[in-house]
Every structure is written in C-alpha cells, then in structure tokens.
Specification:
Helix content is 47%, strand content 20%. The chain is α+β, with helices and mostly antiparallel strands. The protein has two domains: 2-43 and 229-349, no CATH class; 60-210, no CATH class.
Length: 350
C-alpha cells in the first residue's frame, strides 16, 4: 500500500505541488499571526524589563497596566526610596499615544512618551547617538525613523533627538520617545509634579498610602491583557487559516479520490480493505501538509517583516506547526472517506 501511495504522489506531482504551495502560503500567514500574538508579549516585556526595576509602585486604579494613565504625586518617589529593602527608586511618567511633529514635516506621528530620571532607572541605553545631557533632549525608538540631530516638537516645544534605541515600543508597535521627567510633565500634565509609576531596585517593605507594589511579571501580564481584544481577533483569524488549509487539502484529495475510483475498486477486488485505502489517502494528505509546513517555515522569514507591529515567531510556534499540519491533513482526508468506502469491487471488472 505504501508503494501505491507514493506512486500516486509521483503520478500527480503537479497537482500535489500546487496544493503544497497554496497550503504553505496559508500556513506561513498563520505562523506570522502566531508571531503577532507573541509579539504583543515580547514588546511589552522588552520595554518594561529594560527599565531595570525589580519591582514597581503604581496606583491601584491602573490595575497593574503600565500603559494606564493613573497618575499620582511625584513625592511618592522619595517615600518609596526611604522604605527598607529599596536600593534605588526612580519616578516614571508614561503618557500613551501622544501626537508629535518632527522637524521639516507637518505629518503628525503617534508615540508613547516616557519621562525618566536621567541617570536613574529607565534611562535608555542608546544604540546610536548618546544619552541625556540636557533638559530639552529626547531619545527615540528606531521605528520612529527620526535621525539623531532632528528636532521633535512635543506640546509646542522643540526637543533635540540625541539618541536612538531599538525594540522599545508599546501597544502594537507604537514607538516610545524617552525624555527627562520634567519635560514630559510639562508636555502632558501642564508642569504639575505627577508620575504614573516608581521603578524600584529592590522590594519596598510597604507602599506609600494609596499605592501598591507589583512584580515586573505582574505588570507585563496586566499590560498585555489590555490588548486582549486584538489578540483574540488575531487568534480567530489564525484559526480560519487552519480551516482554509484543510479545505485546500480536502478539495485536492476529493478530486484525487474521484479520479482513482476505479483504482480503489481494483485494489478492493485484490483484497485491500477500505481502512487501508483510507489510510493511503491520509498518508498523502500528511505528506502534502508536512511539506507545506516546511515551505511555510521558509516563507515566514519573508512575511514577518510585512507587518507594522513586532512579530516574534517563537521556537515553540515553529515546533507546533508540523503537528498542526498533521492534524490538518488527517481532518482533510475525511472528505474523501465516502469515495473510498463506496468503491464497489465489482466495477473493477466492468
């Protein structure tokens, strides 16, 4: 039966090749969508962990979400710094989705502003240019595509871009612009001494009244949870991709089963069971989907950069893809089951 199966694969090589390419494209998109969902977590974890805090002090009304604008007085920074177990504390003001302008352009850009203490926790480590050396300066993420030396207009005031960082985004690829804390307070709160978090090196014994102490993992999880609807939509689309892949393989097998109806009758007349013939079709489907999964692994290298937001295709997702491909192949084979079981051995001699 194996010989018959692979002989049929060879005989219908062009037909199977078309199916492999079609399913491979679909699986590549499904793999990229998996990377999108994982990308939400990796970008949040990367940006928050880059601050270097071992714990966070935030307002309980933020529910642990770093991107929630739940401000409280800056004086909490000093109160946290006095707590036992604290080695260093730095105030942070995160203002999500602010509109800025760049020098020489009237096109508004959406960014996340992050005010930090120069030299404190959260002071960005640049990959180009240099860090803060004055009050009216900014460090931008490379996704903003603003070169060092440009001027960034925030709240009607100009700030010189002195440095560039990589991989510092939030909310699905929106770049973070780092500025001294006082500058962000001037732009967002009208100069009032408000902050949204205190980054802590160490763990304070107690939080100031009205605030809570959170672990970085809790902050990351809560921040990612805010993107739940987007993640759910992507996962639903990925599930549709699996269905489309199964439909492509099923239609191919159904046509092949129609063309092999007389072959099935002959094989049954020679003693083959319906189960053995069906397993032959299953094997064909699995071979096609596994080859398509291999093609998808290669194509995903080229499809991932097409998305505007971070795509993080993890090794686990790549390992799961062949297993999913096998399931897709088995499910797709069911469509041709009736053609196999309905083959009448008597027609082999008609």
């Amino acid at each position: 039966m194996l010989a018959v199966t692979f002989a049929d694969l060879w005989f219908r090589a062009r037909q199977f090749l078309i199916a492999i390419v079609g399913v491979g494209l679909v699986l590549a998109l499904a793999l990229a969508l998996s990377g999108l969902t994982d990308g939400f977590h990796s970008e949040v974890a990367g940006s928050i962990n880059a601050v270097g805090a071992s714990s966070w002090v935030m307002s309980p009304s933020a529910h642990g979400r770093f991107t929630a604008f739940a401000a409280f007085p800056e004086s909490a920074e000093a109160a946290v710094a006095r707590e036992p177990g604290v080695h260093r504390a730095s105030a942070v003001l995160f203002a999500p989705e602010q509109v800025v302008l760049t020098s020489g352009s009237s096109k508004p850009l959406t960014v996340n502003l992050m005010g930090v203490r120069p030299g404190g926790l959260g002071d960005p480590q640049v990959v180009a240019g240099h860090g803060f050396s004055g009050p009216d300066q900014a460090v931008v993420d490379s996704r903003l595509k603003v070169p060092v030396g440009s001027t960034l207009e925030v709240g009607g005031h100009g700030y010189q871009v002195v440095g560039v960082v990589d991989g510092r985004t939030m909310d699905g690829g929106i770049p973070i612009v780092f500025m001294p804390l006082a500058a962000v307070q001037q732009a967002v709160t009208g100069g009032r001494p408000l902050i949204t978090a205190v980054a802590v090196d160490g763990t304070p014994a107690n939080a100031p009244p009205g605030l809570v102490v959170l672990a970085p993992s809790t902050v990351v999880s809560a921040t990612v949870a805010a993107l739940g609807s987007a993640v759910a939509s992507i996962n639903n689309t990925r599930s549709l991709m699996w269905i489309v892949a199964a439909a492509i393989v099923a239609s191919m097998l159904y046509v092949a089963a129609l063309e092999r109806k007389r072959d099935f009758a002959v094989l049954k007349a020679l003693g083959s069971s319906s189960r053995a013939l069906f397993m032959s079709l299953v094997l064909e489907a699995v071979v096609v989907t596994l080859l398509a999964a291999l093609l998808a692994e290669v194509l995903s290298i080229f499809t991932a950069p097409l998305f505007a937001q971070p795509v993080d295709i993890t090794p686990a997702a790549r390992l799961v893809l062949p297993l999913v491909a096998v399931v897709v192949g088995v499910v797709a084979s069911v469509g041709a089951l009736r053609r196999v079981t309905g083959a009448d051995p008597a027609t082999a001699f008609g």
